[in-house]
């Protein structure tokens, strides 16, 4: 069996690593604390054990990694998988929080009309190790320890709720104290609005990660124009699931809203959005659209975004404007892979 055909070690839950107690923790430390991607360098493990591991388990999920650095400090990572497919992660080292946006799929079946990934269609689900491996690879590329990356959003390519089990296992690996040891308050799952998934997430008691919903419109007609595939539920169903989620977890929900000129930036829509959110503990993130070649949409003007913001705030909604990162490094998620033949497809349009 060649290395590329071996099972991926990172696909395992940390409790299932193939070594007994003390050795298991040593192996986990090499992988997740020191970020070592080569068994040969794990010198506290006996040579024979290292050889056994190398013969049985592949450590690196990626065939090739390219980086694209933006002037604002963010870095896009384009990963080529062993099957030749490509997907991306974005590293944002700004302020005091090193944040990574990871993909959960190659491409995406949701086909949101403003999204470069949606335009490419669905390639395949990523495995848990291919999701977690993005954090290790980015840490390696940046010359930092994996645990220095403290914030993670499942907001890259793909709809995480449609790759639910793999994403949940990835989240458990991220949070596990012997693995990446991330704080559950610093891991956010973003969904385009899969009501069933939102309800399932509410029942994952041990996880406690945060939820963001890419709503993008408060009225059904506009939303169907933006998210036409029917992967997502109606706004009424999404809001009902969100309220149930909040009733169970007590956690605040973030609503992502990509600002599209002339489409969803009318002030009546701000009023309707405020109405939809009444009684819910939420935060609205307004995201100027990050333009990409071939898109039928452009971002709302600064004035429109400000007016939309003012209307929401005036109606008591907790709101902020998120500035897009990495415009000169390949722009929105999906755009790097989109430009390459054979690649499938990125999330929130920013
Ligand atoms: S915005 Fe997210 S859910 Fe929609 S097509 Fe893009 S990656 Fe998929």
From TrEMBL:
Annotated ranges, domain Radical SAM core: 94-328
A Gene Ontology biological process term: tRNA methylation
Gene name per UniProt: rlmN
Entry cofactors: [4Fe-4S] cluster
EC number: 2.1.1.192
Keyword Disulfide bond found: yes
Subcellular localization, as worded in the UniProt entry: Cytoplasm
GO cellular component, one term: cytoplasm
Residues that coordinate or bind [4Fe-4S] cluster: 108, 112, 115
Family: Belongs to the radical SAM superfamily. RlmN family.
Catalytic activity: adenosine(37) in tRNA + 2 reduced [2Fe-2S]-[ferredoxin] + 2 S-adenosyl-L-methionine = 2-methyladenosine(37) in tRNA + 5'-deoxyadenosine + L-methionine + 2 oxidized [2Fe-2S]-[ferredoxin] + S-adenosyl-L-homocysteine; adenosine(2503) in 23S rRNA + 2 reduced [2Fe-2S]-[ferredoxin] + 2 S-adenosyl-L-methionine = 2-methyladenosine(2503) in 23S rRNA + 5'-deoxyadenosine + L-methionine + 2 oxidized [2Fe-2S]-[ferredoxin] + S-adenosyl-L-homocysteine
Residue numbers annotated as active site: 88, 333
Additional record remark: Reaction proceeds by a ping-pong mechanism involving intermediate methylation of a conserved cysteine residue.
Species name: Deinococcus radiophilus
Protein keywords: 4Fe-4S, Cytoplasm, Disulfide bond, Iron, Iron-sulfur, Metal-binding, Methyltransferase, rRNA processing, S-adenosyl-L-methionine, Transferase, tRNA processing
Domain of life according to the entry: Bacteria
Cofactor binding comment, as recorded: Binds 1 [4Fe-4S] cluster. The cluster is coordinated with 3 cysteines and an exchangeable S-adenosyl-L-methionine.
Recorded GO MF terms: 4 iron, 4 sulfur cluster binding; metal ion binding; rRNA (adenine(2503)-C2-)-methyltransferase activity; rRNA binding; tRNA (adenine(37)-C2)-methyltransferase activity; tRNA binding
Pfam families to which the protein is assigned, alphabetical: Radical_SAM
InterPro entries: Aldolase_TIM (IPR013785), Methyltransferase_A (IPR040072), RNA_MTrfase_RlmN (IPR027492), rRNA_lsu_MTrfase_RlmN/Cfr (IPR004383), rSAM (IPR007197), rSAM_sf (IPR058240)
Protein name per its UniProtKB record: Probable dual-specificity RNA methyltransferase RlmN
Record function comment: Specifically methylates position 2 of adenine 2503 in 23S rRNA and position 2 of adenine 37 in tRNAs.
Residues binding S-adenosyl-L-methionine: 158-159, 190, 214-216, 290
Catalytic class of the enzyme: transferase
